[in-house]
Amino acid sequence: MNIYHSFTQLKKLSAPVHWAIGFFDGVHEGHRRVIQSANTPGAMRGVLTFVPHPMALLRPNSAPLLLTPQAELKHRLLADLGVEVLLELPFTKELAALSPEVFIEQLCNACTVAGISVGDNWHFGKGGVGNADFIKKEAAKRGFRACISDMLMMEKDTVCSTRIRALLGEGNMDKTTQMLGRPFSIFGTVEHGQKLARKLGFPTANIALPASAALPCPGVYSVSATIKGQLCHGIANVGLRPTIQENIKITRLEAHFTDWNNGDFYGESIEVFLHSFIRKEQKFSSIEALKAQIEEDLNHLKH
After folding, report:
1. d(Cα 189, Cα 144) in Å, to the nearest integer?
2. CB 16 within 8 A of CB 42
3. Mean pLDDT across the chain
4. With contact defined as beta carbons under 8 Å apart, do 206 and 254 qualify?
5. Which of 140, 159, 174, 289 fits 152 for a cystine, CB–CB 3.0-4.6 Å?
6. What is the dihedral of CA 96, 102, 107, 111, to 10 degrees?
């Protein structure tokens, strides 16, 4: 997948592109429908998106936390859908001020547009006045395909990033997985910790979580990850570790894999999949009580 960051860079493309346009946080099942509709014969499948989330510029206090805050993870999910060209436009005041007409004109001047795919609730351009109907009119005028996808519903529930964030915050991993089309995952680099869990007999992989990340309900989850080519299973705490005395509290994932015995993997980037919610995070009266609870939590992996 080739990644570009401006309209000008698209001029090097030799083939037409069918663009799926949107922010696509989480790359969930509804997004997949839009992206997979970008399938014009003879054209490359492209995704046009923005960095950062437009709300981070337009209304910072209302900007959502992100299901896929790390670019590397989002890129991989898009590539897995057969995306050949990714255009990540910096979302600036200048871009936000473009009218829908000028935005589409700049895209069409930069490359041969075979089609544009969007969700039927998508809005763009200054004041958000551009919409699916506008794309249809531009398609008729400029000669490209317009593919408009209806909102995807699951059990009378709308599949969208906002709804998935809410389900995640409730610890509803079954429905989160259903809407994402895969288990929710946390991606990051394994860092050195206090090694307290190791002393308790439960060595853990610690991943600090970015402030921009949408997180599940603080608590303990059954998890899996592929570490150096080996599929491993275990449990993980997501939260602030209230039992542990620390000068600075940082939200982190702390995972113990029961079937990993090949040494440390500090500095490794891993993706940890959260499968089921076991219990809420809590503060224990002692380290011994915490150890006893971890042993109880591990019993959930046997069922």
Report:
1. 43
2. yes
3. 90
4. yes
5. 159
6. -150
Q: What is the pLDDT of residues 233-287, one digit of tens each?
A: 999 999 876 666 656 667 889 998 988 776 677 788 899 999 999 998 877 767 7
Residue type, 225: A
Cα(189)–Cα(223) distance, integer angstroms? 16
Quote the CA–CA distance of 237 and 263 in Å, as a whole number.
Answer: 21
pLDDT band at 137 (very low <50, low <70, confident <90, very high): very high
Q: In the predicted model, is pLDDT for residue 120 greater than 80?
A: yes
**What residues contact residue 262 under an 8 Å CB cut-off, 6+ apart?**
227, 228, 230
pTM of the model: 0.88
Range 291-298 average pLDDT: 83
Instruction: Please state at what angle helix 161-169 crosses helix 173-180, rounded to 10 degrees.
Output: 160
Per-residue pLDDT of 154-202, as tens digits, reads: 988 999 999 999 999 999 999 999 999 999 999 988 886 655 555 555 6
Omega cis (within 30) before 52: yes
**Nearest residue to 189 via CA among 202, 206, 204:** 206
- 217: number of CA atoms within 13 Å, CB side? 20
**How many Å apart are CA 258 and CA 43, to the nearest integer?**
47
Output the DSSP codes for 197-224.
HHHTT---EEEE--TTB--PPSEEEEEE
Residue 107 has pLDDT above 60, yes or no: yes
Strand order in the sheet with 269-280: 185-189, 269-280, 219-227, 230-239, 252-257, 205-208
CA distance linking residue 109 with residue 105, whole number of Å? 6
Closest CA to 89 of 37, 60, 124: 124
